[in-house]
Amino acid sequence: MKINPSHRGDVDPTRPSTTGAPPNASEGLAARKPRAAKSDAVDLSEQALSFHRANAAVQAASEVREEKVALIRHRIESGTYEVDPALIARRMLEGS
Predict the structure, then answer these.
(1) What is the H or E stretch that residue 54 is in?
(2) Whole-Å CA distances, 96 to 86, 92, 93
(3) Degrees (nearest 5) of the Cα angle 58, 60, 65?
(4) pTM of structure
(5) Given its phi and psi angles, is residue 20 left (phi above 0), alpha (psi -120 to 50 degrees) or beta?
């Protein structure tokens, strides 16, 4: 495709606009009324609000049960922690 160098997209101020703008663009802008700022709003259902509160509570809660970890750590360090191999094997088989 060959581009004609005489039509490079230069703007000719004497030529009428084909965009539908008023002949004097400054008059067109001055005639417009300023619009009030719009704000977005969202209305959530009671169920959605309840879900949001529950989700926030779950996110705030720790995944690690600190008391249980501390108890097991203490038992391991003191040598009183006992492992039940049969229970471990049974739970491994239930999980598969």
Answers:
(1) helix 46-60
(2) 16, 7, 6
(3) 80
(4) 0.32
(5) left
Identify the three-state secondary structure at position 69.
Answer: helix
Token pair in block for residue 3: 């581009």
- Residues 39-61 pLDDT 10s: 888 888 999 889 999 999 888 88
Q: How far apart are CA 6 and CA 17, in angstroms?
A: 19
CA distance 7 to 48: 58
33 in helix, strand or coil?
coil
Confidence at 75, pLDDT banded by 50, 70, 90: very high
92, two tokens: 């491994």
